[in-house]
Design a protein that fits this description.
Number of strands: 20
Helix content: 25-40%
Bound molecules: flavin-adenine dinucleotide
Strand content: 25-35%
Number of helices: 10
Radius of gyration: 21 Å
């Protein structure tokens, strides 16, 4: 094998080799060719087209940045990224709308957390308006709550359209159906990868944007990612009576988890989605309970962090599992926000799976995580709001890759 992918000096197919054609990998390609025209970028994507995993299976929300710890990468990139995403969509004619959203408290114990979000939003420079029950009905007549906040800068867009446009506008060579199975890195001699089809592609610097597989790809290079991707599926229903919801309605999130809770989202197509919940997936691309990959599942179970999560959060997890298998339990949870919804209003819709990085001790990595190895940049945690923030994230990854190129 080593001879097959051996790197030869002067035989590079490209300067930067990006693994992963989701929104982060494509945004990185776009940023590099903008910042340093003439740099040869190749993107290898295992699927037949772009954005087939997290990027194409999410809520489609341009997040304002209201939730994230001030100073974190998430806060900085989401605030900047949301404004840039709206501009990008407008410039390239991609469907989008700045709708604003409500975050609604339905229980008294949620009120302090709602007030904390107001503070956090202000610290992140996001104007929020506090609402009482009567004002909630002005925005959303069918929604019930004790109090809410309105965030005006939230929107929705077509992230698949954005990914396609990033691929085109980057001018990078994009190879679809190219699953990377081996990596050979020689200090000072670049990186060569072998695809499942037997092709060898050589680059000077490697960028790993493999999403649900990013830790595996990091290990292929010989770098220890020190985290494991634990896949959490998010299941959705479509609302058969979309007229019940005008815009975007979110619960107050539980700060113990990096997930925002089941929300109601009117997308750019006018349909309303309800979800996503968060249940353990039995495969990294496990979009239903029937998809089980024993090798991947064994890898998740062998990671001590997975058991630590199970011990710490079993009560929350049990509730999520119950709501996953019982439509009645899911309906009961949705009715807290939208009392008029009936069982017949819920139509199953495609699920997504989040690539959540988990430390050995069970800590769910909260912020974006980018690590460098020799001639390699690894994106090891790019969960929500990474689609919103993809333009600034891509610039940061691209800057690191170009710095590496410059130092070779
Ligand atoms: C249910 C859900 C809801 C979400 N809602 C939102 C939201 O409303 N707003 C928001 O901003 N964010 C949201 N997110 C987060 C957002 O979707 C992700 O942060 C973002 O899409 C990550 O992009 P990515 O390019 O890192 O990953 P991906 O889109 O998963 O792309 C990774 C790519 O790498 C490829 N790949 C993997 N291994 C290999 C290999 N060995 N060789 C070649 N290719 C490989 C995969 O096929 C894939 O296409 C949500 C995510 C989920 C799952």
């Amino acid at each position: 094998m080593a001879e097959v992918v051996q790197v030869r000096t002067g035989a590079y197919d490209c300067d930067v080799l990006v693994i992963g054609g989701g929104i982060v990998g494509l945004s990185t390609a776009y940023a590099i060719t903008r910042a340093a025209p003439g740099t040869r970028v190749t993107v290898l994507e295992k699927e037949p087209g772009p954005a087939r995993h997290q990027t194409g299976r999410n809520s489609g929300v341009i997040h304002s940045g209201v939730y994230y710890r001030p100073g974190s990468l998430k806060a900085r990139y989401a605030v900047r990224g949301a404004a840039e995403m709206v501009k990008f969509c407008a410039e390239y004619g991609i469907a989008h709308a700045v709708t604003g959203k409500l975050i609604v408290a339905t229980e008294r114990e949620e009120l302090p957390r709602l007030h904390a979000l107001v503070q956090r939003g202000r610290e992140n420079g996001i104007p929020v308006r506090e609402l009482g029950p009567a004002q909630i009905s002005e925005y959303e007549p069918e929604v019930q709550g004790l109090a809410a906040i309105h965030v005006a800068t939230t929107g929705v867009c077509d992230f698949v359209g954005v990914a396609r446009e990033l691929a085109r506008a980057s001018g990078a060579e994009i190879r679809y159906g190219a699953r990377v199975v081996r990596v050979d890195r020689r200090p000072g001699l670049g990186v060569a990868v072998l695809t499942a089809a037997g092709d060898v592609v050589r680059g000077r610097v490697l960028v790993n944007c493999a999403g649900l597989h990013c830790d595996e790809v990091a290990r292929l290079t010989g770098d220890d990612p020190e985290v494991r991707i634990v896949p959490f599926r998010g299941e959705y229903y479509e609302l058969a009576r979309p007229e019940l919801v005008r815009g975007l309605v979110y619960p107050v999130p539980d700060p113990a988890f990096p997930f925002l809770g089941v929300h109601l989202t009117r997308g750019i197509d006018g349909g309303v989605h309800i979800g996503p919940n968060a249940v353990p997936a039995l495969a990294r691309e496990g979009y239903g309970w029937g998809v089980v990959r024993p090798r991947e599942l064994a890898g998740t179970l062998a990671w001590p962090g997975s058991w630590a999560i199970a011990r710490r959060h079993w009560r929350y997890g049990a509730g999520e599992l119950h709501r996953s298998v019982s439509r009645a339990a899911f309906l009961k949870a949705v009715r807290r926000l939208l009392p008029g919804v009936a069982a017949t209003d819920l139509v199953r819709a495609p699920a997504g799976v989040r690539a959540q990085a988990v430390l050995r001790d069970g800590t769910l990595v909260d912020d974006f995580l980018i690590r460098e190895g020799a001639q390699a940049v690894h994106v090891l945690n790019a969960p929500s709001p990474a689609a919103t923030a993809s333009l600034p994230i891509g610039r940061e990854i691209g800057r690191r890759a170009l710095d590496m190129l410059g130092s070779l």
